[in-house]
Amino acid sequence: MTTSKVVTVVDYGLGNLFSVERALAAVGAQARFAQRAEDLLAADRVILPGVGAFADGMRGLTERGLLAPIQEVVARGTPLLGICLGMQLLMTEGHEFGHHQGLGVLPGAVVPIPPPDANGGYKVPNMGWGRLLPAASDTSWQGTVLADVKRGEHVYFVHGFVVQPSVEQHAVAMAECGPHRFCASVRRENVHGTQFHPEKSGPAGQAILSAFLKM
Amino acid sequence: MATVRVIPRLDIKGPNLVKGIHLEGLRVMGDPAEFAVRYYQQGADELLYMDIVASLYGRNNLTAVVERTARDIFVPLTVGGGVRSIDDIRTLLRVGADKVAINTAAIRNPQFISEAARTFGSQCIVLSIEAKRTPNGWEAYTDNGREKTGVDAVTWAERGMELGAGEILVTSVDQEGTSKGFDLPLVTAISKRVRIPVIACGGCGTPEHAAQAVADGKADAVAVATVLHYGRHTIRDVKAAVRARGLDVRGA
């Protein structure tokens, strides 16, 4: 008997859970929403979604007692994918409407995209399709969720803040917003993150979710 | 510049995809879900669903249609028509919408834009403006171009941005459904006034019209219907015309 893969999706009040659920279904996986520590600790594979502000995200996780369980899941080596705000929450600290502690799974900070000057050329929040570029000339996407994505492929972004990993090698892909290059995807061992929304990135996004299912 | 987005606009009446001229004289085109999937597969960057009789009847019937289509569509989905309350927005997001477009309710109570942006984030709130030419500019209309408001469309766009809208969808009622091209002065006037993305809508009859709206009108995205619905052109054709003007599109 074959069973579809189950992905535990953290429900802390701020995710577009149904979009994530549908996108997972399309690549043959079943989403199981988790609001409690025990559901999370039993997971084989975790997605931390998120749409919204950093402080609201940390509050949502704290109120449900999910901070330590997420750190525990990461420490165990369970594959985890943070999407958008979900990736930002993995960092040490956030600077959105004040200074806030993050989950600290990845060393680094979350900072605003600098506002455009009078000449403009770009807009904040950064909203729309952007190209994925390798972080460095020798960066390989093998073993990351981007393994099956072409360099320069477009994916869908909606964000006003970006992550700055302290460890350069944790950034695997970059994207551009006007003159600014920012980190579009992170990877540290079993922890993966995308600033963009794979669940809204068409066929490229489906390939990314499929790659995560193989982790 | 960010990638130019090509957004099929699907006007919905009851269970059907419809298309009119000047937002009136509606003709039934078929099942919206079929068109939505076809456009997604052709490379649509987003989809826009508008319940075009919702305001008239004071209801929103899109929920079921959105829920059915969102299952097979993995690009952002904006839904508008009869969005009146925070609960309406929550319901639409829950069934698969990523953003909502608000017109009539925002004109009646501009603070609704602020409240919606505070609750769901600006990225979620599209201010929809239906504009008609006047001797000295453009006037915003509600209820699918039926009701005058006395509000200047360009000033309203700027106010909408200040209130927290994340994007402006500007539909020219004069051009809508005519296939004669966008109202470029209108698109330009609004694009110059606001610092948030502008989606030009109304009048696209050829891929070149779409290219004009972004290259000349400075729009960030185009919403198109007639040019696609009758099978005259594909999204690929529209993107090729935009690319020919030196602008980036997805799927190049």
Low-confidence stretches of chain A: none
**Strand content of the residues of chain B, in percent?**
25-35%
Largest sheet of chain B: 8 strands, parallel, barrel
What's the β-strand tally of chain A? 14
The averaged pLDDT of chain B comes out at: 92
Greatest contact between two chains:
A-B, 33 and 31 residues
Helix content of chain A: 10-25%
Number of helices of chain B: 11
**Global outline of chain A:** globular
Summarize model confidence as the mean pLDDT of chain A.
Answer: 93
How would you write the strand order of the largest sheet of chain B? 1-4-5-6-7-10-11-12
Total helices of chain A: the number is 6
> By helix and strand content of chain B, what is the structural category?
alpha/beta
Share of residues in strands of chain A = 25-35%
Present the secondary structure layout.
The complex is a heterodimer of chains A (215) and B (252).
Chain A: E1 5-10, H1 17-26, E2 29-34, H2 37-41, E3 46-48, H3 54-63, H4 67-76, E4 80-83, H5 85-88, E5 91-94, E6 100-101, E7 106-112, E8 126-131, E9 133-134, E10 154-159, E11 161-165, E12 171-177, E13 180-188, E14 191-194, H6 202-213
Parallel strand pairs in A: 1-2, 1-3, 3-4, 4-14, 5-7
Antiparallel strand pairs in A: 5-6, 7-11, 8-10, 9-12, 12-13, 13-14
Chain B: E1 5-13, E2 16-21, E3 24-30, H1 32-42, E4 47-51, H2 54-57, H3 62-70, E5 77-80, H4 86-94, E6 99-102, H5 104-108, H6 111-120, E7 125-134, E8 137-142, E9 147-152, H7 153-163, E10 167-172, H8 184-193, E11 198-201, H9 207-215, E12 221-224, H10 226-229, H11 235-244
Parallel strand pairs in B: 1-4, 1-12, 4-5, 5-6, 6-7, 7-10, 10-11, 11-12
Antiparallel strand pairs in B: 1-2, 2-3, 7-8, 8-9
